[in-house]
Amino acid sequence: MTRPADDKILTALERRHGPALRRYVQHLTRDGDLAEDVVQETMVRAWQRPAVLERDDDGARAWLFTVARNLVVDDARSARKRREVDGETTTEAAVADRSDAVLDSILVADALATLSADHRVVVVDAYWLGHTVPEIARRHAIPEGTVKSRLHYGLRALRLALQERGVTR
């Protein structure tokens, strides 16, 4: 149990060293709320130890700054700190939602399945594999004009199949 004199000494200690202690902790943490919590906890610990209140001004100041620094270090090392992330960090580090891309690929694959095998092969070769018309012609042993024709009609059929599935352009 503390004496009323201890409360007065603690109040005077906070008045003399509190602002500098807050600036110091704010500099260490870069977090105003955490800095205020650390300063309050430091003062509580000083209040719990009457011997600190009886020290000379320089000794009390050194003790307060040491305790505050140790509290900041303990907080940084805590398991809570390693698991918790503030909202701003979460927002910045959020991974883009890929569900639209997955649904689009399912729609396109479904629409491709409706094409004839001849049309599907040249469309996939040209647009997914990146082959040119002469390369497709050589790969499938068909004339270049046939490749162009199949691409034209295949893309037209693909567009219609996608429109039937609700994809519009």
TrEMBL record:
* Residues annotated as transmembrane: none
Record flagged with keyword DNA-binding: yes
Q: What is the superkingdom listed in this entry's lineage?
A: Bacteria
UniProt KW keywords? DNA-binding, Sigma factor, Transcription, Transcription regulation
Q: Does the keyword DNA-binding apply?
A: yes
Among Pfam families, the record links this protein to: Sigma70_r2 (PF04542), Sigma70_r4 (PF04545)
Q: Where is the RNA polymerase sigma-70 region domain?
A: 15-81, 111-159
Report the sequence similarity comment from the record: Belongs to the sigma-70 factor family. ECF subfamily.
Name recorded for this polypeptide: RNA polymerase sigma factor
